[in-house]
Predict the structure of Prepilin-type N-terminal cleavage/methylation domain-containing protein.
Amino acid sequence: MTPDHPAAGGAARERGFTLTELLVVVIIIGVLAAIAVPVLIGQRTSAIEASVQSDLRNLLVAVTAAREGDAAMDADKVRDDVRVTPGNTLDVVVDAGVYCLRGASDRGGRTYVLDADGLRPQGGGDCGGAAVLTLP
């Protein structure tokens, strides 16, 4: 038997972590979590906005195909051709024969507008007129 063994009359040597070591580990985990959470929230918002932008581009292709030249848009054809990400809402707005597409998400993020000037956040300009088609 070793001299540290309790049966040999020696003091038992505990193997484990001290309270200080455990508290240091908990504090380090807390600091890392405080750094990571805001970054993850920002990434989530970026992903939501990217899904709205992607849906608007898909809607643009469907509206362009449905118009077939200068003909009026066939709303039923557009509904059949476009799959909207769950939580996103898209509007087709017509004002004086000019089409403007507007998209937003009920999960947060900004509202986007896609028209002849390109894709931009709604604060940079809004679609005039009333929505003639809302998806989904």
Observations:
- Residues 17-135 form one domain.
- The chain has one domain: 17-135.
- Helices lie at 19-67, 75-81.
